[in-house]
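Hi Y.,

Following your request, here is the sequence exactly as I used it, all 125 residues.
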Amino acid sequence: QVRLVESGGGSVQAGGSLRLSCSVFGYTHPSYRMAWFRQAPGKEREGVAVIWTGTGTTYYADSVKGRFTISQDNAETTLYLQMNSLKPEDTAMYYCALGPWAGSRAMNVHEYNYWGQGTQVTVSS
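Below is the corresponding structure, written out as tokens. Let me know if you'd prefer a different format.
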């Protein structure tokens, strides 16, 4: 059974930093991609960052480029999202997701098969 478990959310003032973690359990396929998505109240879920295992290739939404960094540990069992220079508009529920290596679009929410439960990030001005 595949499980994704997030942690690390919280409340921070604008300009601050947070690091999210996502532990992966039960997934044994060698090649896949993992991503962070977020969803604010009343808005659609949007992609934040993607990483492809093995190559470490990454892709970011324009809104977070230069501020957020996605990474994995060497064992590729834990996904991270380092968030710096946080803004109030970054406030959302953040989800990690796992999907196949290949797909039509890096952040197509429908191409991800497994999701975590979400962790709340709140940035105050």
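The chain has a mean pLDDT of 95.

Thanks again,
Q.
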